[in-house]
Write a structure and sequence with these properties.
Strand order of the largest sheet: 3-2-1-4-5-6-7
Structural class: alpha/beta
CATH superfamily: NAD(P)-binding Rossmann-like Domain
Largest sheet: 7 strands, parallel
Order of helices and strands: HHEHEHEHEHEHEHEHH
CATH architecture: 3-Layer(aba) Sandwich
Shape: globular
Number of helices: 10
Number of domains: 1
Radius of gyration: 21 Å
CATH topology: Rossmann fold
Bound molecules: NADP nicotinamide-adenine-dinucleotide phosphate
């Protein structure tokens, strides 16, 4: 994060030279600190304010708790279900964090805009925005329901746009801030049976890249978090892809905190994701085969003899 507390670099060098005669482990610690500062690692989230969407469950909730452990000062939690949000808020308050909840349906962009504008008037300015809310429906595209397609596009994209527009304007005015957009490994390597979801997650990566360029002159950073399969409500009823190891939400949250501290532009979670992205770049045909081998079987066999292969539903 651009505005996280950080001692001047010169101070760290002075510290290093003063400690050269100290036992090795101490100077190693100082050396690590100086190296981390050279790589742009800020110290902590102490005293900061973060807004997290999708904070009532799963990855968003785990991110809220990770930030609480990092001594974040204030959290503003967004999701639809006020009771769940309140339960998460109560648990976070016990860790010493000031928490407000903002129940919002991200599929209603106009309402999101006006509620956000009102909410920001009554809260400390946002230092970190984590756009985590999302939905996914697993279905062959030709069998997809238009209503589910709309919900995926509205939640994963339009909802994120509406929140980001309001918060990014405030960050630009303050000349500081960090935005984390939660995409997915499927934003890099699209998966069969998840066409619309993959499309939204690819779009988030493109959106973040453009936004990063626009906001950089204003000292606002933009990071893409790309979890792979993670054990949450979202995937509970999905047919699994073979050989894919699922992460825990806490692992994703930890990767986010580390990546944001390092100022990373993109954060992949787990070795399988790194392998998949590398394979897709270096050997795309092999990756296509791997996806075919690992994908879950289609629910409806497509007949090569019929013109209308499956009835389209809304
Ligand atoms: N789980 C995975 O395998 C995986 C992998 C890669 C990326 N991701 C991404 O990680 C993010 C979090 O996913 P998750 O696995 O934690 O899912 P989850 O457990 O289903 O949680 C989704 C969160 O989004 C909120 N949400 C859903 N629709 C909303 C709406 N219309 N308005 C406001 N909030 C809404 C939900 O709260 P309410 O229901 O209360 O609104 C909930 O807090 C998503 O962007 C997802 O695409 C997940």
């Amino acid at each position: 994060m651009s505005n996280l507390k950080q001692k001047p670099l010169t101070q760290s060098f002075k510290f290093l030279s003063l400690n050269l005669s100290q036992p090795q482990n101490e100077s190693n610690t100082v050396l690590a600190e100086v190296l981390s500062r050279l790589r742009g690692i800020p110290m902590d989230f102490h005293g900061q304010t973060a807004l997290i969407t999708g904070a009532s469950r799963g990855i968003g909730k785990a991110i809220a708790f990770s930030l609480a452990q990092q001594n974040i000062h204030t959290l503003l939690l967004v999701a639809r279900d006020p009771q769940r949000l309140q339960r998460v808020a109560t648990d976070l308050e016990q860790l010493g964090v000031e928490v407000s909840i903002l129940p919002l349906d991200l599929t209603q962009p106009r309402n999101v805009h006006s509620s956000m504008v009102k909410a920001l008037r009554h809260h400390p300015p946002i230092d970190l925005l984590v756009n985590c809310a999302g939905v996914a429906y697993q279905r062959q595209f030709i069998e997809s329901h238009l209503q589910q397609v709309e919900t995926e596009l509205m939640t994963n994209l339009l909802g994120m746009y509406s929140i980001t527009r309001v918060v990014a304007r405030q960050m630009v005015r303050r000349k500081q801030g960090h935005i984390v957009n939660v995409s997915s490994l499927m934003g890099k390597v699209a998966a069969p049976s998840m066409a619309t979801y993959s499309a939204t997650k690819h779009a988030i990566i493109g959106f973040s890249q453009a936004l990063r360029g626009e906001l950089a002159p204003h000292n606002v950073k933009v990071t893409n978090l790309m979890p792979s399969l993670t054990k949450t409500d979202m995937v509970r009823d999905m047919k699994p892809f073979r050989w894919v190891r699922a992460s825990r939400p806490e692992q994703v949250a930890k990767a986010m905190v580390t990546g944001v501290k390092r100022g990373n532009r993109e954060i992949l979670v787990g070795w399988q994701s790194h392998m998949a992205v590398m394979c897709d770049r270096l050997a795309p045909q092999l990756m296509t085969r791997i996806i075919r081998w690992t994908q879950p079987p289609a629910t409806t066999p497509v007949s090569p003899y019929s013109k209308v292969v499956v009835p389209l539903q809304n």
